């Protein structure tokens, strides 16, 4: 009987942990092509209750040594400067098993590539959050969370690449007998997607699949090992080609 009660308790805790909103932001990396100024990002709520989601944006600034910092977009006299990425709307109400979208709009300088962290954070709506709900609806939502045992709402951060207006790809390859090197001489990020390092002729003996972003002026390289094969998709904007290399 005690074991049965313990199993019931674990099952109840599991159900409580799964209760509430469960948002899914789709892919982690998004790219705004040089001839576009807006991008639609859709958020799905696979949970059991409505998700109130706040969208926040920080700009990612990279140093020469590869380090980076995330900084708020500049304000001018209390008004967001028109030189960066904005989300409209920045507050989303996503019902259970439904989807809503926010439009990411870029305005400002596009002479070089820029990078942003876009965060989608579910919250318990408060009056100052500016969600279009009444005080009664806010209180009811809080009661539902307490009853369901939901204490932590998981948020997600994505990376948004804004390509230059005049995007130029110039990928230089040095494929020697012992080493493969790719240099990005263009002005926009190149993606090494689904990079696989496998034992030759044995697809099920591979090291973990990885993804790499090669920014302008940077390189991607690896040493070849005898008896191994390397495969990946080289993505330059909307163009993709599969590359296969033998060690």
From TrEMBL:
Protein name per Swiss-Prot or TrEMBL:
Molecular chaperone
SUPFAM superfamilies (alphabetical): PapD-like
- Signal sequence span is 1-19
Superkingdom of the source species: Bacteria
InterPro entries listed in its UniProt record: Ig-like_fold, PapD-like_sf
Source organism per UniProt:
Pseudomonas viciae
* UniProt keyword list: Signal
